[in-house]
Amino acid sequence: MTERRSFRYFDDADWEVVAAACDRLIPPVDGHPGGRALGCADYIDALLGAFTEDPPRIWAGGPFSGRAGGVAAFERFLPLGPLETLAWRTRIEGSRGLPEREWNGPVRGWQEVYAEGLAALGSDFCTCDPDTQDRRLDAAPEFKALLYTHACEAAYGAPEYGGNRDCAGWTAIGFPGDTQPRGYTPDEVRGRA
Amino acid sequence: MPEVDCDVVVVGSGPGGAAAAHTLTEAGRTVIVLEKGRNHLLATEPPYGPLGHLSNDELKFTRRHFLGPDPLLEPRTFRRDASDGDHLEVGDVNALPCTVGGGGVHADGKLPRFREPDFRAYTEAGPVEGAEVVDWPVTYAELEPFYMEAERLIGVAGAAGANPFASWRSGPYPMPPGPAMYVAVCTTEAAARLGYHPYPAPTGANSVPYDGRPACNDCGFCAFYGCPIEAKGDPVAPLRRMLASGRGRLRPEAHVTDVLMAPGGRSVRGVRYLDAHRREHVVTARAVVLAAGAFETPRLLLRWGLGNPDVVGRYLMVHVQTLVLGIFADRLHTHRGRAVTHLMDDPIVGDAGTAAAARDAGLPWLRGGIVEFGGAAGPVMEALQLPPGPAHSAGMLTSALRDRLAVLTMQGEDLPQPTNRLDLDPRVRDVFGFPAGRVTYAPHRHELVTAAHWAPRLEAVLRDAGAQHTFWVTSPPMPGAPNDRPGMRAPQSRHLMGTARMGTDPATSVFDPHQRCWGIENLVCCDSSVFPTSTGYGPTLTLVALAIRAARGLATSL
């Protein structure tokens, strides 16, 4: 089983349900590890719990990750400005009736969507057979759509955000990921191979 | 002369504002540039080096609003016409970056010039019913020296003479073109076999070290991304020069709210702005340059009640994009290179087939746009196109929608219609409480007929290049097409133009031929709001050339 690495938001039981659900949306097949093994639940845990750290885990640093040379700096997340903090807290936590977050009315936060979605999947989700799991996901379409969006971001985004564990998402699909400061040679750009 | 904070305050730090600020400081004027977005581009203290924020990070740039505008903080709204009600879509509408450097940061730097006939659209091509096609109040010959200057300032790599349809130029490009991408090699050879005329795209990315910045290393994170190594010159180069002059300052996170009018209302004296902590500041100046882009500039003018009220916000043009896609058997590694390395102008120039299609449709003429020979975007974008479940994993492994996909994008000319406009949404507000900008837009029949004419011809190019399957979509969608559904109806084009057109008649334009506001001579516009027509070319180089020209005129007048 995939070990949990991010401990910012979910309790262990919820993390397991999210991991199992991500494995239905991005199923493991020959050559592809699937959503659970790629750490999609860790990515979502880090996103929903982004503000448990300062700077929050919203924008990874730069200019280089170290994977293609240079000093590894993606892990040094960038500080948000006051307005960006307002936007991301509102997006993640919801407006919660706070006037400063409701200039266009109430905003439903991702934490709320996940809480309701996890309740809809049920605490026995991990022990259900795959068909039952799929039916429960289909019965919560708003949550399923958000979970799939986050799972896709997790599986193929930079691993510093918590998913794409050991770059296995990129390896599976033949994508090299970030390439600065090495880049590609003119022959690699022009050539067929 | 009363004491002022600077000679000129520039609103917006994108390609137009940056070029204007550089030109003014070069001419000895003092400038303060106000940018409402964050600064991720360059230090504002010597030696004005990179900040290290830009990176090869698909999530940051395409999913987390890193370059702004954040659709929660600054929602924009869209409707096709009044029958859609107040608005159809809210949030992410034409999200041209709101950051230091503006649209220049995310663009992949394709910087073609317009052609001579584009400046005489009415005289050369003639009227079209339902649109107001006009000549520009400036000619190609007048603008040509400023095109040269813009190409040198930004650093454009290109090959003079490679495009048989290009107008004359008085000198070579500053750099030769960089390496062709494999996908472009395959597809341009096919285009040439079918009688078309592809050429290496003039690109604002260094092919050799230039102006103290390194050569592009073709990392593949170009369109949508800021350049981590400063190989893209636009707009790092003009902003750094402006700062290094000692006469220019840059203030990010400065949200302009009001313009200060002189008594009598015939001139402006500066602006008021809010910083990120909502503290109010005033900058006084002898002139104000508006360079906030063709969405925000008319929004400010409408809020302030300035400019010809019958014209401000109207004639909004985008490029109607026809995306022609081909799936190949083999991998094309489109993640290596500068997103697009070749263009062709054939749909702009037209041929006998185009003329026949126009006749059949009862239109006097059809003009498309440049065709960009490119590929798909990153794997997160690819993943989101696939359905969840087994089709996801299988689809990602075979990568028909990314690594085996070639994309020919035609940036089709969009005719100026008075009903297509930017105005203020009656209900939606930005985080500061100001009315959101609202786009009301529907393409003219010319654009739809042109797309339907060229799409099959471009599919034939991809099939000749070896594509197994081809298909096409437009943005905005054709009525009834599969992508004509909620969330997809606003144009995806980031090329916005025409919302405060310039002209020779104050009754039918907002700015005069030198981009000065009619009736308020020290209010100057340096963005694509002033474009009278859209042409079929990307707007950036032309708006930069116009900004240099207008700023030089302004510097002389102060």
Helix-and-strand structural type of chain A:
mainly alpha
Give the CATH class of the largest domain in chain B: Alpha Beta
Nearest-integer average pLDDT of chain B: 97
Share in β-strands of chain A: under 5%
Number of domains of chain A: 1
SSE topology sketch:
The complex is a heterodimer of chains A (193) and B (558).
Chain A: H1 12-25, H2 34-37, H3 40-48, H4 82-93, H5 110-121, H6 130-138, H7 141-156, H8 168-173, H9 186-190
Helix pairs in contact in A: 1-3, 3-7, 5-7
Chain B: E1 6-11, H1 15-26, E2 31-34, H2 58-63, E3 76-79, E4 89-91, H3 103-106, H4 121-125, H5 140-154, H6 182-193, E5 198-200, H7 236-244, E6 248-251, E7 255-261, E8 268-274, E9 280-290, H8 293-304, E10 320-327, E11 340-344, H9 346-349, H10 352-361, E12 371-375, H11 379-385, H12 390-398, E13 405-412, E14 421-429, E15 435-440, H13 445-464, E16 469-475, E17 516-517, E18 520-525, H14 540-557
Descriptive account of the structure:
The complex is a heterodimer of chains A (193) and B (558). Chain A is built from nine helices and no strands. With 193 residues, chain A is mainly α. Chain A has one domain. The longest helix of chain A is centred in the C-terminal third of the chain and has 16 residues. The model of chain A has no long low-confidence stretch (mean pLDDT 97). Chain B folds into two domains: 257 residues, FAD/NAD(P)-binding domain (3-Layer(bba) Sandwich), CATH 3.50.50; 194 residues, Cholesterol Oxidase, domain 2, CATH 3.30.410. Chain B contains 14 helices and 18 strands. In chain B, the strands form three sheets. In chain B, strands 1, 2, 6, 7, 8, 9, 17 and 18 form an eight-stranded mixed β-sheet that branches. Chain B has a six-stranded antiparallel β-sheet with strand order 5-11-12-13-10-16. In chain B, helix 5 packs across helix 14. The chains are: A mainly alpha (193), B alpha/beta (558).
Give me some keywords for this one.
heterodimer; A: 193 residues; mainly alpha; 0% strand; globular; B: 558 residues; alpha/beta; FAD/NAD(P)-binding domain; Cholesterol Oxidase, domain 2; 2 domains; eight-stranded mixed beta sheet; six-stranded antiparallel beta sheet; 14 helices; 26% helix; 19% strand
